[in-house]
Amino acid sequence: MQLPSIAQKHKQYHIMDNMKIDTRIYQYDPRASLCHRGVVILVDKDERVHCLCSSHYYGNFCQYQNQRVTLTIRIGQESLEKFHVIGIVIRLVDHTGLIHSYEQITYIPVINCDAKYNLHLLYQDRPKNMSKNYSIYIDAYNKRNLTYITSWIFPVQFLFMPVNRMSALLTVPKYQECRLLCSDKYLESLRNVNTDSCQCHSDQTNWIQYKCNCSPDSICVGFINNRSICLCSLTKVGPRCYLNSICQMNTCENKGICVPSDPRHSLANFTCVCPEGFSGKICEEKDVQIDMSFSDVEPTGSLLIHFIKVIKLEEMTEDQAPTRITIFKKILFHQKIITFYMALPFHLVFVQLENVYYLIALQHEYTPSIVISTQISSSQHCPHIRELDKVIADYSILHRVKYYHAI
Length: 407
Fold this sequence. Notes:
This is EGF-like domain-containing protein. Residues 243-284 form the EGF-like domain. Pfam families: EGF (PF00008). It comes from Adineta steineri. By secondary structure, the protein is mainly beta. 8% of the residues lie in helices and 41% in strands. The chain folds into three domains: 30-65, Laminin (Ribbon), CATH 2.10.25; 69-244, no CATH class; 287-386, Immunoglobulin-like. The longest helix is centred in the N-terminal third of the chain and has 13 residues, at 6-18.
């Protein structure tokens, strides 16, 4: 056993001297360990023991493991449009069309572009019925107008396992794809309730209206335990979307979209999705606008724009370091001026056309919310090091410094 050094001892004593020591004595209650993977609560005056179980366990003492599907998904989109809010509905469905459990996600591409979601979908039967086939149905909707976008289906395999772990990478298409996955038997389970469901036969889509108990400005996306699964608009919340959300009074400025936050993923009450050119918590800040045209340089179909923030050497810390932000921009046919925006501080802006770089903006001191008009010309070309004068470049460092201006 290695004893601490004298310096370590002094450090430990110093910490002890500054700690507030709680002198209260806690007595161990054996009832605290009765619930396996659960929380003990005492009910009524006689202090009857009850266990609060997580969704993974059940039983009087949380002693049984729930059979379930653990799903990890990451979402992306084909479109470069940032002004999107996408509602994702995930359902565990058997081959008869019965929905066993479901989850909903609100995906904001500009904020959640690299987020992972871990979901747990439970079976209704304990244990699950091994004679049935199960699948994960995932539907995507535009939350701004509740229009359908697309669907995915993933069969659940290896049913003998108590917990099935699955992962999926979902790419939301740029345009609507009508392949909503609902079979005849699934539609039969939707009778007597009110929803828009898509029944696909031979690539033909028929929209059939059923009754449901969701609010008028929401849609039904399925039914579970004789209750509707409702997809709410951005201004409504609740199981049936009858409660006004915090976004009922839109506090986002400059035509920003207010999105109620999911408490599972964010502690904020709402998030503002800002239109291009604005940023801030409520879209109150105007971004730097750069209008760029072409002089004697032939534009290509697209370009990369690199924003670089410079930090002085004496100011560099772990939190303060030089940064580079790169954005992609398409160039339309006959487009004369390209406009783009940047919300974060920068000092240098380079445009990359294929493998050629041009310096288009330089700020010694960053100025927010300004408009910069510039153009790409051959005089702004940044040559590669191999294009420099090789004779001078081969000099020693001290010798080369004298000719730096001539390289």
